[in-house]
Write a structure and sequence with these properties.
Helix content of chain B: 40-55%
Oligomer: heterodimer
Number of domains of chain A: 1
Distance between the termini of chain A: 63 Å
CATH topology of the largest domain in chain B: D-Maltodextrin-Binding Protein, domain 2
Structural class of chain B: alpha/beta
Shape of chain A: elongated
Strand order of the largest sheet of chain B: 5-1-6-13-7
Mean pLDDT of chain B: 86
CATH architecture of the largest domain in chain B: 3-Layer(aba) Sandwich
Radius of gyration of chain A: 21 Å
Distance between the termini of chain B: 68 Å
Low-confidence stretches of chain B: 23-30
CATH superfamily of chain A: MetI-like
Order of helices and strands of chain B: HHEEEEHEHEHEEEHEHEHEEHH
Number of domains of chain B: 2
Low-confidence stretches of chain A: none
Order of helices and strands of chain A: HHHHHHHHH
CATH topology of chain A: MetI-like fold
CATH class of the largest domain in chain B: Alpha Beta
Number of helices of chain A: 9
CATH class of chain A: Mainly Alpha
Number of strands of chain A: 0
CATH architecture of chain A: Orthogonal Bundle
Chain lengths: 222, 268
């Protein structure tokens, strides 16, 4: 009575898997751009102690980094309607990912900013660079260059974490997998294919972010 | 010689067959009249669920309670005998009956051809169906009217599979991981309707007054029947008479109101 492997019932739903994978990538892309943007703002507020935003971001970072992503998602989707804030599952998923990545990237980027020696800022000021020029060339870019690998990993963690968005009926890759599995009961085959898809997607994102980093961040920072 | 042996063999065969038939008839006769037996001993042994509210669960006083227990007591009262409840699970409820450990199975039992081969069923005594539920003030009576609406459902459940078959592509079906998420999505207004079981809807209405679930239309009907051993026509007739009377005098309706928070459907 050895198990008969049969991938055909899974590949019948290839379209569903591909659209799920596409939605996962789209969620990740929007989440990553907005989340890292939020992280940059948060990191500056915290690193330069801009009141009162530094403490606001401090509380935000602590709350998000010390609670499960799934609970944050449920809070947004099932909890906020009690306050009259109703979102579709996509809006809720994107918001949860942005908020989550925002908190982690705040801390990651802050580490990068604080690693820039004060002497460099003074040197930049003595070269008569404007505040914006200092910020852009002396603070932000070297900071991002230092923490780029960590940010890349965090984006991939968020992409993999987006799997739980299937719980609120967001039709991303894990939703597609669960859906297919609930129809054909081919658990091994379905999740095997899904795992492979996630793996490939993670590798692709890592490659893509490394290229972007080399080209726009690290390459010009030195 | 051979001529004389033939009739002998034939009569031997006849004898064996006769004994076998007599044996079968005799054995059915021996425990045939469950009804008479129950009335003689004054006890009705009923297999009831203990893990399936609201049909049967264990109350805070550790006594079984639920729709099926009330039904068992109602039958016991009509027969004028004491009821002995035997807690069973959904897998062993039919074996309890076929091995004679119970006189009746009242355990949210649905009818299907496989079961009908081994036991007999009374008339239906309780509604059990999957359907679409929604706000009580919204009119909706058939699947076509769902077009453009959003329905929540638990992924992979019977109602998911059935609704997927009958609903047009214009219906947005949102599939959630489990019953709790599906119900939460409805209660928080994330979906307009839900497809679920009447029992789940009753339990939800029992727990929250937030956004009550009213039955809209039926997806799959599978009412509950009292199960009894094969070949007990007298018992079956008596059960059906009791159920008919209980439907008439409103006592079954009272049980439905108590446990399902809904009146007994008229077509039951």
């Amino acid at each position: 009575m050895a198990y008969q492997f049969d991938f055909a019932p899974v590949f019948e739903h290839t379209n569903l898997l591909l659209s799920g994978a596409g939605f996962t990538l789209a969620l990740t892309a929007v989440g990553a751009v907005l989340g890292i943007g939020l992280g940059i703002v948060g990191a500056i507020c915290r690193a330069w102690r801009i009141r009162p935003f530094d403490s606001v971001f401090g509380v935000y970072v602590e709350i998000i980094r010390n609670t499960p992503f799934l609970v944050q998602l449920f809070f947004i989707f099932f909890g906020l309607p009690a306050l009259g804030i109703k979102m579709t599952e996509w809006q809720a998923a994107v918001l949860a990912m942005v908020i989550n990545l925002g908190a982690y990237s705040t801390e990651i980027i802050r580490a990068g900013i604080q690693a820039t020696p004060r002497g460099q800022l003074e040197a930049a000021a003595s070269l008569a660079l404007s505040r914006f020029q200092i910020f852009r060339h002396v603070v932000l870019r070297p900071a991002l260059a230092k923490v780029w690998p960590a940010l890349t990993s965090q984006v991939i963690i968020v992409m993999l974490g987006s799997a739980v968005c299937s719980q609120i009926a967001t039709e991303e890759l894990t939703f597609a997998a669960n859906f297919i599995q609930s129809r054909n009961f081919r658990a091994f085959e379905t999740y095997f294919v899904t795992t492979a898809l996630y793996f490939v997607m993670a590798l692709l994102i890592r490659q893509l972010l490394m290229q972007i980093g080399q080209r726009y961040v690290v390459g010009r920072a030195g | 010689m051979t001529m004389t042996r033939r009739p002998f063999l034939r009569s031997l065969c006849g004898l064996v067959a006769g004994v076998a038939v007599a044996g079968v008839i005799g054995s059915t006769d021996a425990h045939a009249d469950v009804l008479a037996n129950v009335q003689k001993t004054g006890t009705l042994r009923v297999a009831v669920p203990q893990d399936f509210p609201p049909f049967g669960s264990v109350g805070t006083d550790l006594k079984p309670r639920g729709y099926d227990i009330d039904m068992a007591n109602l039958i016991g009262k009509e027969l004028g005998v004491k009821v002995e409840l035997i807690p069973v699970t959904s897998t062993n409820r039919i074996p309890y009956l076929t091995t004679g450990k119970a006189d009746l199975v009242i355990s949210s039992l649905g009818k299907n051809p496989d079961r009908e081969k081994v036991i007999d069923f009374s008339d239906a005594y309780a509604p059990f169906f999957n359907g679409v539920f929604g706000p009580e003030d919204v009119a909706l009576s058939k699947v076509e009217e769902l077009d453009g609406k959003t329905v929540g459902v638990t992924r992979g459940s019977v109602e998911d599979l059935e609704l997927t078959k009958i609903a047009s592509p214009k219906v947005t079906i949102k599939r959630f991981e489990d019953n709790n998420a599906t119900i939460s999505a409805y209660l928080t207004g994330q979906v307009q309707f839900v497809a679920t079981g009447n029992v789940v809807a009753a339990a939800v209405n029992d727990m929250t007054k937030l956004r009550r679930l009213g039955a809209k239309f039926l997806i799959k009907n599978s009412p509950c029947y009292v199960g009894y051993a094969k070949g007990e026509a007298a018992l079956g007739a008596k059960l059906n008479a009791i159920i008919a009377k209980a439907k008439q005098d409103g006592s079954l309706d009272a049980i439905a109101q108590r446990w399902l928070n809904a009146p007994l459907p008229k077509d039951l």
